[in-house]
Amino acid sequence: MDIAHYRSHSFHKKWMKFGAIVVIGFGPAFLLGSFLPTAEPTRLMMDILGWTFWGGQSFDAPTTRFLSALAGGFLIGWGVLIWQLATHLHDLAPEVVRKAVVVSFLCWFVTDSLGSIASGHPSNAGFNAFFLFLCLGPLWWSATSKPVQG
């Protein structure tokens, strides 16, 4: 495929939806952590992201489960917002939507990475960089084609 394909509005729109699905996918994973009977998968995920294997993370404290519920809700909401922007506004204002999505991911990356480092889990900043590039992909650059109105 020609490189222009990856810089097209239609590909950008598809990639935004892919990024939205990635973000939404982490929401239920965190939500599970708010219930003690289902917290183990979330704890394992946090062990991996924090690089603290063999039970380094605990979801025994109610405040930890509360924060997990908040994170799950925010991630689902943010992912749905990205999906809605791609679905309903991208064709009308593709560059504005692209910039909004890129800036939102950059804000997440900086704040989440700083918080991870400050809390003693710098490895999560590396995982964040991976997800930043995965979710933004070609969105770093403006599209070169005209959007298809439909």
UniProtKB/TrEMBL annotation:
* Transmembrane region(s): 15-36, 66-88, 100-119, 125-143
Top-level taxonomy: Bacteria, Pseudomonadati, Pseudomonadota, Alphaproteobacteria, Rhodobacterales
- Swiss-Prot/TrEMBL keywords: Membrane, Transmembrane, Transmembrane helix
At the top level, the lineage of the source is Bacteria
Please give the name of this protein.
SPW repeat-containing protein
